[in-house]
Amino acid sequence: MENRIQSVDALTLKGQISLPYTWWAGEVGSRFLGALRDEKKILGNQCAGCKTVYVPPRKNCGKCFKEIGEWVALGNEGVVQAYTVVRFQYPLQPVPTPFAYATIKLDGADVGLVHIIHERLEDLKSGVRVRAVFKEDRKGHILDIDSFQIM
After folding, report:
1. 64 within some domain
2. What are the CA-CA distances from residue 36 to residues 64, 68, 75, 125, 132 (Å)?
3. Is the pLDDT score of 5 beyond 60?
4. How far, in whole angstroms, is CA 121 from its chain's centroid?
5. Would you say the C-alpha torsion 29, 35, 40, 46 has a positive or negative sign?
6. Which of 16, 50, 101, 106 is close enough to 78 for a disulfide, judged by CB 3.0 to 4.6 Å?
7. What percentage of the chain exceeds 90 in pLDDT?
8. Torsions phi, psi for 101 (to 5 deg)
9. How far is Cα 65 from Cα 49, in angstroms, rounded to an integer?
10. Within a domain: 49
11. For the chain, what is the mean pLDDT?
């Protein structure tokens, strides 16, 4: 019997599809998001094996693969490691343009947290210090941190 790959024409759909959904954040994610909502506090967790501090927290260490159990309260300030400025408006973006997505290494963390900066973009550069600004009405979502502001 001869194996053949059958050619299929590509299907093209016109329009936009919005797929709103909800999911369970898990034990670790729920504690992280609950602290944002209830305490305006950013939590990370530290691996007992290699001592890496993760934010957002993880269930298992990405370096040594051990389960992580120790929680660490991190500061609301950090340093921009990298960023990109978004100028094209799209309906699914979390804020109006222009804004920046930035990888922010919070004080006390070993890995960066990706979040939004939407003010003073002309002053944005790698190495600049920033501070978290929390929303007044928080819902247990990463966007309970409204944005980070350049200090």
Report:
1. yes
2. 27, 20, 12, 26, 11
3. no
4. 19
5. negative
6. 106
7. 78
8. -90, 130
9. 9
10. yes
11. 90
Domain housing 70: 26-150
Long-range pairs for 91-99: beta carbons < 8 A, 24 or more residues apart: 91/16, 91/18, 92/18, 94/143, 95/147, 99/147
For residue 15, give the amino acid letter: G
In a domain, 5, yes or no: no
Number of structural domains the chain divides into: 1
* Residue 29 structure tokens: 């994610």
Span 17-53, pLDDT tens digits:
666 767 788 899 999 999 999 999 999 999 999 999 9
Residue 69: per-residue pLDDT? 84
Residue type, 7: S
What residue has token string 């966007």?
143
Residue 33 belongs to a domain: yes
| Whole-number Cα distances in Å, 123 to 85, 95, 126, 131 | 12, 19, 10, 14
How many Cβ atoms from other residues are within 10 Å of residue 146's Cβ?
17
